[in-house]
Predict the structure of TetR family transcriptional regulator.
Amino acid sequence: MSTGDDAVVGAGRAPRAARTTRRYEPDRRLRILEVTLDVVAEHGVAGTTHRKVAAAADVPLGAMTYYFTGLADLFSSAFTLLAQRWGDAFEAAMAAVPDGVDPRDAVADAVLVGLADDADADAVTGSRRQAVLAYELYALAARDSAVREVTQTWMERTRAALRRHFDPDDARVLDALIEGLSIHAVLSTEPLDRERFRADIARLAPPPLAPPAHP
């Protein structure tokens, strides 16, 4: 026979069969990083907290400190993932330029894909999410040397991909050019003019390397 105290204790405890069991999730850390980028895109680095990310990712708050030593580690890891994906995409685009095609056209196309590759793209900004994440990354890197390593690696990968088709010094200049044109495109209140963007790249970019002579 149960006592009154037993009844009170039992009333506050969910039946064993009704307790929810979290599924095994080997890629939880990766999913947390992806959700972190979503939270940063919505709230900015300054407005991102462990609690907001945990809630958005539907994980216990303790999971944040299990996988990351602090917010700095979380941001560095999330932006590393982002830069790796951007670098992979640009390298693939530069490696896929066929013989006889002006690589400046391929550069413009690769950048334009990056300006409009999200579902929340609009007529003015192209890809608002990608632009916001890039600016959050730049601002954080300016203050955090660990994150600056992320941007440095990203720039080096971009320039290495460009060196497939351009002189090393020209690749560095072209990298800065496309970055500047991209920033202007997403900050402008005018709709993105894709043809003018391609024309600007073709007009301002350094000349590509001469194709190898075939025997």
Notes: The radius of gyration is 24 Å. Residues 1-21, 117-126 have pLDDT under 50 and may be disordered. Residues 71-204 form a domain with the Tetracycline Repressor; domain 2 fold (CATH 1.10.357.10). DSSP finds ten helices and no strands in the chain.
